[in-house]
User: What shape does this take?
Amino acid sequence: MSRLVMTPELLTLIAERFKALGEPARLRLLNTLRGGEMTVTELVDETEFGQANVSKHLHVLHAAGLVVRRREGPFVRYAIADDRVYTLCDIMCDQLQAGSRTLQSILR
Assistant: This one.
């Protein structure tokens, strides 16, 4: 794996992406989109979040390049821009699970 020079500008871009991922509602929307493209209405139905809340979070995710959107007639459909975002989530889940095992062994 090649290593990029971590310039201040690059670190800012990385931090902005992580900031977009730092909200549980956004992670839930991304997880819901694992099943494929959805409209705002479908995401509202699936997550039980309000329409304004879903739209606000999708705007942030789109601005961060984490979701893409396309118009289909009167609807806008949202999808994951890059499935590698799930790799990040999987890495974090693995770390949490490993940390949990360590904590459990300490408490025994």
